[in-house]
Automatic annotation (TrEMBL):
Protein name: Glutaredoxin
Gene label: grxC
PROSITE patterns: GLUTAREDOXIN_1 (PS00195), GLUTAREDOXIN_2 (PS51354)
Assigned protein family: Belongs to the glutaredoxin family.
NCBIfam families the UniProt entry points to: GRX_bact
Keywords: Cytoplasm, Disulfide bond, Electron transport, Redox-active center, Transport
Source lineage: Bacteria, Pseudomonadati, Pseudomonadota, Gammaproteobacteria, Pseudomonadales
GO terms of biological process kind: cell redox homeostasis
Native source species: Pseudomonas umsongensis
PANTHER family hit by this protein: GLUTAREDOXIN, GLUTAREDOXIN-LIKE PROTEIN NRDH
Job of this protein: Has a glutathione-disulfide oxidoreductase activity in the presence of NADPH and glutathione reductase. Reduces low molecular weight disulfides and proteins.
GO terms of molecular function: electron transfer activity; glutathione disulfide oxidoreductase activity
Domain Glutaredoxin: 4-63
Domain of life: Bacteria
Length: 83
């Protein structure tokens, strides 16, 4: 299974939703808090080109935010992308 990386903040409801959706699939992501960890906001911006959280990666592939993750799940493509 690919490593799942979530760039998050403590106060983000979409971050909590993304973690809950992944947990429901048995996936424990590597979480990076961009507010508490120096340099990680810049890393997220560089990797994703986006400023909002969460930003979600499967391995090196940028998935997007929570809406993108939920769409993959609705389409039935989430678990196959993680394989």
């Amino acid at each position: 299974m690919k490593t799942v990386t979530l760039y998050t903040t403590d106060t983000c409801p979409y971050c909590r939703s993304a973690k809950a959706l992944l947990a429901g699939k048995g996936v424990t992501p590597q979480e990076i808090d961009v507010q508490r960890t120096p340099g990680k906001l810049e890393e997220m911006l560089s990797r994703s080109g986006r400023r909002s959280v969460p930003q979600i990666f499967f391995g090196d592939t940028h998935i997007g935010g929570f809406d993108d993750l939920a769409k993959l799940d609705r389409q039935g493509a989430l678990m196959s992308m993680l394989a």
